[in-house]
Specification:
Largest sheet: 5 strands, antiparallel
Structural class: alpha+beta
Radius of gyration: 37 Å
Strand content: 5-15%
Order of helices and strands: HHHHHEEHHHHEEEEHEEHEEHEE
Distance between the termini: 97 Å
Strand order of the largest sheet: 6-5-4-3-7
Number of strands: 12
Main location: membrane
Number of helices: 12
Family: Belongs to the MscS (TC 1.A.23) family.
Keywords: Cell membrane, Membrane, Transmembrane, Transmembrane helix
Protein name: Mechanosensitive ion channel
InterPro entries: LSM_dom_sf, MS_channel_1st, MS_channel_C, MscS-like_channel, MscS_beta-dom_sf, MscS_channel_2nd, MscS_channel_C_sf, MscS_channel_TM-2
Shape: elongated
Length: about 425
């Protein structure tokens, strides 16, 4: 046995050296021509190069050594290496189908361990005994009688069918998102409905395949209904509200909306919440129920154009017609300001310190933000006012001494008191 272990370790070391050279060649090829790796075949080959190389070397060594010695350990190692290659290929395919699924790394380790244990039990002949022992552990759910082996088969079958259903749902969603002429909200609705239906179909097909009657799950269904009625009301309400938002098309991807104190662009609509990306880059997660039950300001619902107002104050000595002309010209210098409707200036009020005016203009891209356009126009107005000598007033306070004390001068100027800006 010891010599088999030594030869097997030597074979694995040789396989590791060869696979390292092959992975290096794959890496150099990827750097030389990145376009060749877009399909993911290079990554899949890199993942299975070690188990396949080790499998070939172990099979060759087994065929040679079998003429002189027993090779039971090699007979055990070959299926394990083959299982390792199959598991890595399966996980690679799943990662291609679900690129956002971080749980696949944990799934790979768990499934690899379970598969190796099953293969080892099968090769050693212990697997039938283990299955008989699991079948002896029985229990009842309602009128249905189950055992632990049947339950494990059901879990494995449902897991496989659910993964297949998720892969099909991902393919359908990818195809829908590439479809032109279909409303974006309807794309999301169809994708979510197809995913839910496929998952239900996977469970209803997977359990009967191993002999589990679906009526046996009625107890769990009743408990789930009670849970939804008491502890999961908000989750269910948000789920339904998500479909309402998608179906009535009141909020779409890319809309600029305000709800409560949150304002931003709709970047994602899920079954439970909607993501708003603010102008500062901060993302706010808003429950769908809040969007359905609250007043929402959608600045790009039917028309992306929005009007922006800039308050400006000038002194009473300024020529108002000249000032209004300067304001309009300052707005027209900005490329984001629309020509139709054209910018307009208005006299708003006669205030204490000066005359209040308002510059109104329209932009067609509010999703790009409004602070930049406001700052640019204010800066242009300030430059033109400075060139024309137009004063922008500021509050002033004049202090007068009405009843001076004896010995103090009556004139404020002689007393050193003057108008002080505030």
């Amino acid at each position: 046995m010891l010599w088999q272990v030594g030869v097997l370790v030597f074979c694995l070391v040789i396989a590791a050296v060869i696979s390292r050279r092959i992975r290096l060649m794959i890496h150099l090829r990827r750097e030389a021509n990145p376009a060749l790796t877009k399909g993911g075949s290079e990554e899949g080959l890199r993942r299975v190069v070690f188990p396949l190389t080790a499998l070939v070397i172990v099979l060759v060594a087994r065929s040679i050594l079998s003429h002189w010695h027993h090779v039971n350990l090699f007979k055990l190692a070959a299926p394990l290496l083959l299982a390792m290659a199959g598991i890595r290929l399966t996980v690679h395919a799943l990662k291609r189908a679900f690129p956002q699924a971080g749980w696949l790394t944990t799934f790979e380790k768990f499934f690899a361990t379970a598969a190796w244990v099953v293969v080892a039990l099968h090769i050693t002949g212990v697997l039938p005994t283990v299955i008989d022992g699991l079948e002896q552990i029985g229990f009842s759910i309602g009128k249905a009688k189950l055992n632990l082996w049947m339950l494990l088969q059901g879990i494995l079958t449902v897991l496989v069918t659910v993964l297949v259903a998720l892969w099909i749902a991902g393919a359908i969603e990818s195809r829908l998102m590439r479809t032109e002429g279909l409303d974006p909200n309807m794309k999301l609705v169809f994708a979510r409905l197809s995913k839910a239906l496929l998952l239900v179909l996977a469970v209803t097909l997977g359990l009967p395949l191993v002999g589990i009657d679906l009526t046996a799950l009625s107890v769990f269904g009743g408990a789930l209904g009670v849970g939804l009625g008491f502890g999961m009301q908000k989750i269910a309400a948000n789920y339904v509200s998500g479909f309402i938002l998608l179906l009535d098309r009141s909020i779409r991807m890319g809309n600029l909306i305000s709800v409560g104190n949150e304002r931003g662009i709709v970047s994602q609509i899920t079954t439970r919440y909607t993501v708003l990306k603010g102008m500062t880059g901060i993302e706010s997660i808003v429950p769908n129920e809040t969007l359905v039950g609250s007043v929402v300001q959608n600045e790009t619902f039917t028309d992306p154009k929005v009007r922006i107002s800039l308050p400006i104050q000038v002194s009473y000595a300024a020529d108002l017609e000249q000032v209004m002309s300067i304001l309009v010209l300052a707005a027209k210098t900005q490329p984001r300001v629309m020509d139709d409707p054209e910018p307009k200036a208005f006299v708003e009020a006669f205030a204490d310190s000066g005359i209040n005016l308002q510059l109104g203009f329209w932009i067609r891209d509010p999703v790009e933000g409004t602070l930049g356009i406001r700052s640019a126009i204010n800066l242009e107005v300030w430059r033109r006012f400075k060139e024309e000598g137009i004063e922008i007033p500021f509050p002033q306070r004049e202090v007068r001494i009405l009843n001076p004390a004896p010995g103090l001068p009556i004139s404020p100027a002689s007393a050193g008191v003057s108008a002080v800006p505030q």
